[in-house]
C-alpha cells in the first residue's frame, strides 16, 4: 500500500476535493477485494518451517535481510493505513459532498477490515458520525471546526516522512506481496482491544515509527462471497452514482457497511454501540421501512448490523425482544415474502407465484438469524397467551418460508436451514400451526392432517444426510425438530415413520448398510460426535414409540446400546409411561410375512440373518469344556486386574455399572436378608 498519503492530505488541506476523490478511487480499485491479516498467521508459518529445518538438520534458522525488509515494509503499510483512517474520519465530519463522501466511506470500509487501525473508528465521536451518515441518528456528532487547523495535517505528514526515513529500502515489486482475494467485508474475523490513547496521541503530535505496534499484511484466497451472488449495484467507487434519493441511499449503505465491519471486529465498538443507544435508531429504521412496506438496498445491511449486535451483545438482544422485536421482525418477514393472508394464521399459497428474488431471500435470511438470536431461549419456556399468539403467527409465516422457493437452489437450502433453526428454538406448543392448514387436492396428508410442511422437512433432512458436509451443524436442528414434533403429534409420527421405518422385509443386511434414510440415520447412531449420534438415535427411538424391543428390532442391539445405556434402558424396559412423557397408543408393530419367516434366525446384535456357524465345542468332552471355561475365566480376571478391561453389568435401573459393584450390592442384600431371617427366627 505504497500510495501517496501526503498528496491526499495536501489535497484535503487545499480544498481540492476532485484530487482527493481521484486518489481515493485509485485506492478503492486496488484494494476493493483485499483483506489485511494479522502477523500471527505468518509467525506460525515461519515457526513450522523452523521446526522442519531443525528436524531435518538442514540448517539453523536465522532472520535474513529479506525478512528484515519485509517487516519494515509491513510497518510502513500499517502506518499508512492508520494515518489514512485518522485523516478520513476527520475529513468526513467537515461537510463533504455526497459523491466524495461515498468514496471516502468506501475507503473506510476497506480499512475497517484491518483490526490494527480500528482505533480512530471506534471512538464515540466516530461511531456517532457513522451512525448519523447511516441514518441511525439525527443529532450533530461533530465537535470539531469545519475547517481544521493546518497543524493537524502537518503532523500527519511529518509522521509519514519520518517513517520513510527510517524505512529500509523496499523491494521495487512490493505490490506483488498483495494478493487479490474475493470476499465480503462481513467475513473478516478479528478482534481488537480498542487502544484509543495511542490514536489520540496521533491526532495531536508527531508519532515515531517505534511507537507503532509492528504489524503485517497477509492475504488469503477465499471463496466468492455473498456480494458476488447478490450482484448489488454501486459496489465499486468508479461506478456511476444515480441521482436524487439513490445517492443518499448509497451513502447510507456505505456507512452501514463500515459499521458492520467495525462492530464485528471490535469488542470495544460493541460495548460503545450499546452505551450510545444506537440500537434504538436501528429499531426505528426497521419500523419505518415496515410501516411504509418499502425495501431498499440498504435494508439488508441494517438487518446485518442488527444481527451482529444482537448476537454479540446479549443485553441488546433482550432489549430488542422487550421492545416488540418478534412482532416487528415478523412484519418485516411478511413484507419480504409479500404474504397474502386469508385468516389470522392462514395465507394464500399460489403455486404459480414467482420464486423469491435474490435480494429478498438475503433479507429474509438475516431476519431469521435475528429472530433466532432473540428467541433461542424460549424453547422450554411456557409462553403467556399474548406471546403464544405472536409465536403462532410467526410460525405461520415460517411455514411459508419452508414452502416457497428461491431463485437460486443454494438460497432455498440456506433459507430452509435458518427456518428450521428458528422453529427448533420456538415453544413446542406453538408449532401446531404447521399442521392446522386446510387440505388441498394435491396436499400430503395423514389421518386427515395436512403434511405438506412435514414432507418438506423430511426432504430437507434427506438432502442434509446426503451432503455429508458439516454434518453436526446441519443435521442436529432438523433432527431435534422432527423428534419433538413426533413426540407431540401422533399424525406427524405416523407419517414420518412410514417414510423412515417401513415394515421390515429384507433382513439379510445390517440395518446400517444401504443408502436409505433409515440406513443413514442408523449409521449416525455410532458417530464419533455424541450429540449427533444421540439426536439420530432419539428420532428412531421415538418413531418406535420408545419401545426397547421394537427399537432393537429395527437397529440391532449393537447400534442401539449407546442410547439405551444413556436412558438406563439396557434392562429391556418397555415404552415410557411416566406422566411427564408423551402418550403413545397401544397399537402393536405388526410383522411382515417375510420377517416372521426368518425372525428366529436373526442375530439381535447385528440385526440381520447370520450364516450358521459350527459349534466350537463340538467333539469336546465335559472335562475339556470345563478346562476351557476355567482358562477363559483366568484370562478375563487377568485383563480386569491389569485395568485393560472392566467387566460391567446392568443394575436394577437398567444402567451399566461395574460387575464388582453389582456383586458387592448383591452380597450386601443377601447378608441383610439372612440377618433379617435370623432375627425373625430368634423372635419366634
Textual characterization of the structure:
α2 (17-31) runs parallel beside α5 (98-111) and α24 (548-555) packs antiparallel against α25. A hairpin with a 2-residue loop joins β3 (445-446) and β4 (449-450). This protein has 28 helices and 8 strands. The strands form 4 sheets. A two-stranded antiparallel ribbon has the order 1-2. A two-stranded antiparallel ribbon has the order 3-4. Helix content is 58%, strand content 3%. By secondary structure, the protein is an all-alpha fold. Among the domains are: 5-224, no CATH class; 642-684.
Strand-helix topology:
Layout: H1 5-14, H2 17-31, H3 39-56, H4 65-91, H5 98-111, H6 124-133, H7 150-166, H8 196-204, H9 226-230, H10 245-265, H11 267-275, H12 278-291, H13 299-312, H14 314-322, H15 325-337, E1 341-343, E2 346-347, H16 358-375, H17 385-403, H18 409-425, E3 445-446, E4 449-450, H19 452-467, H20 471-488, H21 490-500, H22 517-524, H23 530-543, H24 548-555, H25 557-567, H26 593-598, E5 602-603, E6 608-609, H27 622-641, E7 648-650, E8 656-658, H28 659-683
Antiparallel strand pairs: 1-2, 3-4, 5-6, 7-8
